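Incident log entry.

Two folding requests arrived from the same account within the same minute. Monitoring flagged them as a possible duplicate submission, but the sequences differ. Recording both here for audit purposes.

Request one:
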Amino acid sequence: MVLPITEKKGTYCIIFRLNSFSFTTRGRKRFSLKEGLYVYVGSAFGTGGLRGRILRHLKKDKPKHWHFDFITTHPSFEPLEIWLFEEQKVDSVYGDLVYVNAKNTDKIVRYWKSKPFKEGLFKKGWHPAHPTFFVRKEVYNKCGLFNLNFKIAADYELMLRFLEKCKISSSYIPEIFVKMRVGGESNQSIKNIIKANIESYKAWKANDLKIHPFRMFAKPLSKVFQYFKL
C-alpha cells in the first residue's frame, strides 16, 4: 500500500481487513464487528488535509476521539487500499459486489460489476449494488431515510431518490466491496422478484419521477449478464 503524499483537502476511502472484536466508546456505546473487509469513508477539509488525516488513522498510539480510532488501534486492523478524491466533497461511494454460494463462500455465483453513475441510468435498468452504497450522514438528514413502506425495494427507492432526484454526487470505486451469500429477500422466488419490480416502479411514482412501465423490465434483464462475469 502506497501512502498518499498530498496535503490537499478532499474525501477519502480506506479499505481494510479486520478480525472480530467489540469495543465501547467514550459515550458508553458498545459496537461489535465481525471478521471481514470494511470500507471507511471520511473527509479531510481541515488543517493537514488528506495526508494529516490518513497518517493519524494509521498511527497506533493516539487518543481515541472517534469511533474509527477504536478500530485503527486494534491489532488486527490491516489497511489494504486508500482512495483519494482531492478537493472534492463526495456525497456517496459504491463498488462491486459478488454473490457467493450459501454453503461454500469461495464459490462465486454472480458478479455485480458497476460503473460510474450518469443521470438517466436508472431508466436503463442500472443501479449500484445496494450493499456497497455508502452515503454521508448529512445526505440522510437532507434527503430522508429509508422509506419502510417499501417492504422489498426500500434500498432501490433510497438510491433512486438520492441519485436521480436529490442529485447527490457519487464516485465509483472499481473494487469488490462486499462478498454476500445468495438468498436475499428480493431474489428468493419469482414471486418476490415480481413484487420487487412492482415496488421499484412505485418508487418512481413516490418521488415524482417519470418512467414508462415497460422500462422496468430492463432492471431484472440487466442483471442476467452478472451471471456470466465470473
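Request two (distinct sequence, not a duplicate):
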Amino acid sequence: MYIRRKTEASNGSAMTYLSVSEFEQVLRGKGESYQALVEAAPDIIYALSAEDGTMIFLNPAFERATGYLRSEWTGKPFASLIHADDLNRATEAFRQLLRGESVSRLELRLMSRAGDYLVAEIGAAPEVEDGKVVRVFGFARDVTERKQVGEALRKSEEKYRTILENIEEGYYEVDLTGAFTFCNDSLCEILGYPRDELLGMTDRQLTDEKTARRVYKVFNRVYSTREPSKGYGYKVIRKDGTKGFIEISISLITDSAGQPSGFRGIVRDVTNRVGAEEALRESEARYKGLVDTAFDGVVIHQDGIINTVNRAYATMYGYTVEELTGRSVLELTPPEHREFVSTRIADGVEAPYETLGLRKDGTRINIEVSAKNCLYGGRPGRLAAVRDITEAKRAEIATHPLQESSAIRVRRKFCLPERWGCMDQPTERITFHDCESITLLTISNSASSARTAVLCGFWGM
C-alpha cells in the first residue's frame, strides 16, 4: 500500500508515494523528510484504528479543509464526521478495508466546523500484520469546488441541450473534416436522416459536387479568418432524393489551447421561402412580358411618383423607361389639368376619365385613363392603363364638322378661354373643349339644348 502525496510539477498534477513502512516512520516521529512532506501535503492524510475506526493521525490539511483542530477529532470515530446519507457507503468501505481490500475514488461528504459539508474523494489501504488488519491509512482530497463546477456545467449543458432539442432550427457540430459530431432532432428532420446515419456524414454527401466546393470555401474562410459566417444559403439533397434549400451560420470551435477543432452553427430550412421567391420572380417576369407587349401604356406610381412603366407608356410620352422612373406623374400633365388629375389620384377614382397628356417635346395628347389602387412592394400604389385617343378625337371632328365649327364660333363669340365647357341644363351634361374647340368629353347636338346652355370658362380637369 502507498500513501499518495502531491508535489508541484509543470502541469500541477505530479504525485509521489509513501510506503506503509515510511508512513509508520512518520507516525513514530522518524523519517523527518517524509514527515515534512506529509505535514505540507495539500490533501488530508489520515490513519484509522482497525479496531473501532477511530482516527489516530490527521495532518494539517485536515484543519484547512474542515476548520476543525486535529486534536478535536483525534481518537474519535471517523463515522461522526460523515454525512448521514453517506454513512452506509462509508461503513461498507471500512468493512472492505478490514477484509484487506483497498478503496479508491470513494466520494463522501465530510462535516466542517461551519456546519456545511465538503465533498472529499477518499482513497485508503489496510496495513496487515500476521494476516490481520491493524490500521487503515488513506487520504482525502477536497473536490467540492470541482464538483460544484461540474454540476454547474452539467446543468448548463442540460439546459442548452434541452433548448437545442426544442428549437425549430437545426443545430450542428462538425469536426475539421466536415463530419457531423453532433446534431439536434430538427436538423435530422430538415435533412431526412436519422441521427445515427447523419453522425459521421459530411456535407459532401448532402450536396452536388459544385455546391460542395462552394461550401468548402466558406468553411475554409471561417477557419482562416476565425470570423463567423451568417446566412449562407445552398441546396441540399435529402435522403429521399428531394432537394431543399438551407441557410446556415458557421462558427469556429477551438480547444482549450485555442486551436481549431471543428465548426458549429444553426441551420434554417428556407425551402418554402425560396420556392415562393422563385415563383414570385417567374410571375413578375410573366407579368413584365405581358405589360411590355401591351398596346396601352401601363404605369405604377406611389404618392404620385412613377415606379414602373412599360415601353408603350414611355413611347407615348416621348421618353425612355429609365427617364420616367422616379418622375412625378403630374409632370406628364399640362399645368391646367394637374388639379383635376391630382384629385382623382387622391380620391382613388377607378372610373375611366379623359384628360390631356404632356409629351417630352411639349406637345399635348388626348388620353383616356383607367386606374385602380394596388399594393406594390408592400406599399399602397396606383396602377393605371393609359390610352392615346388623340387620333380618335380627330376622327370625331372629321365626322361632325358642323358641330365642331359651331363650337369654334361659340368660343370666338363669347371670347372664351382656351379650356372651356358648357352645361346643358335639362340633361346636366357638360361638354369640355380645348383651345382648338376639340371636344374632350361629351358633345351635344340638340338645338334646343344649345339655346339653354350656360357657357362657362373651365380651367382645370
